Amino acid sequence: MKTLVLDSYAKLNLYLRVLNTREDNYHNLKTLFARIDLKDKIILRLRRDSQIKIICRHPDVPVDETNLCYRSAKLIQNEYNIGKGIDIEIIKRIPVASGLGGGSSNAAATLLGIDKLWQLKLPRSKIAKLARKIGADVPFFIYNTTLAEGRGRGDIIKPIFSKQPVRLWFLLAVPAIKVSTPLIFTAWDKAKVALTRQKNNVNITNLARVKSPGRFLTGLLFNDLERVTTKLYPQVKTVKEEFLKAGLGANLMSGSGAAVFGIVPSAGKALSLLRRIKRKHNTWRLFAVKTV
Ligand code: C5P
Predict the structure, then answer these.
(1) Nearest CA, atom 10, ligand 1
(2) Model confidence over 25-39: pLDDT tens digits?
(3) Alpha-carbon span 148 to 165, nearest angstrom
């Protein structure tokens, strides 16, 4: 085996509480991740030498050693003293710096793919440990699960397997801005005293037992960072208002933004709303997506 082509899915945060600031300046979170079918492609090719090379045509994706896929490959080389090299091609579709976890997902796909190509046969727990070193959102993508609770920095993952398969459709809108996650968390640090304490004690894992996961999730929707990002980027508010006008009251910003998703009853509904909103806001990127 010399080449591997991998799907690298995006995530949404259906719930996100910021609990407190840690000594390492990260924040403890309680979050619910959902994997969606919006995806990038990662193509891994073995090299004859020991170099790591990133190939990506997207202008906002770095191809140097700061790229999360590069760092993932380098980490495995260093940890396991490996002299093999790799070409990593990234075909980008997930909007960059938008709260959808694209870069983290690419890193996870790289770790999982290299484990196969370099025939390391690492246990999943080891790969998750490596993932944690790359970024807080990377471990979620290591577990092959649609839904998971994230604790700690968001990197301590508990997969949720519900009684009923959870099939949710969303309309997703990403305004033409890039949001810096550290900036949003710093702004949260300054504003936290003024923030509400609502929806604090939700037991996310109840999702595994409820009869109607869709209704449970609609009631759960909450994101502590939404207020913070909206203040700095009013475009997020515009998206939310547009969604509300379209009848999508169940909407939320994902991660630190600026992507906003609304729960829709069907793929058809998502597509008809997408066309309507696209006509009015042609700079937004719009997607009809579902959990996967
Ligand atoms: O882990 P990652 O590099 O993706 O995180 C980017 C930045 O987001 C961190 O440097 C930190 O400023 C912030 N962050 C945080 N708490 C988390 C996750 C991210 O403060 N749980």
Answers:
(1) 182
(2) 999 999 999 999 999
(3) 13
